[in-house]
Structures are given as C-alpha cells and as structure tokens.
Amino acid sequence: MNTPGKHSTSLPTPRKIRRGCSKELYRTVKRLGVYIPEELIKQGETLYYKKVIGNLLWIGENISNRKLLADWWDETVSAELAELWQVDREALSRAFRSAFGG
Known about the structure:
- About 70% of the residues lie in helices and about 0% in strands.
- The chain is built from 6 helices and no strands.
- The protein has helices spanning about 15-30, 40-55, 55-60, 65-75, 80-85, 90-100.
- The N and C termini lie far apart (about 35 Å).
- The mean pLDDT is about 90.
C-alpha cells in the first residue's frame, strides 16, 4: 500500500480547487482596480477552474513553484480572461502576479 510520505502532498479536491480559483481571481480583481460585473467574475472562475482541472497533474507537481504557476497562468488563462473581462492583458497579469505571489 502506498501511503504518502511526511512531506508529499496529494492532489487537491475539486472543491478546494474551485475555492482557490475564486480567491485568486477575487484578489486579482481588487488589485486590478476596475469594476467587473458579478456574472463575468463567475464566468472567469469557471474558465480558470476548467484550465486548472485540465492541467491538474502538472500543477500538482509544481505546487510549490509560484513563479512557474504564474507563468502558466499568463500563457494559459490570461488572454481568455482579459478578453472576457475586457481588460488589458498586461495589467491583468501584473494584478494576478501581485495577488498570487509569483
């Protein structure tokens, strides 16, 4: 039987992922300093959640590398989210990195 070691982490649950995505985008919007309607925020959370679920194994392997995860977010999520929210992608990326710590 494989039991996790003292310092190994298991993959997060879908609930934990959804909550994490929600918190990260909430902090990003606050740092962005623009009004985004609640409905668009919900759509953005769903978009982000689906991207995370699609790359869950890679994200799990790199969970402790915030810079690498923020780079992944820039490449994978930021363009679609900026288009959805109709904000500048660069400003969105800076706000996310500030909120996420990467």
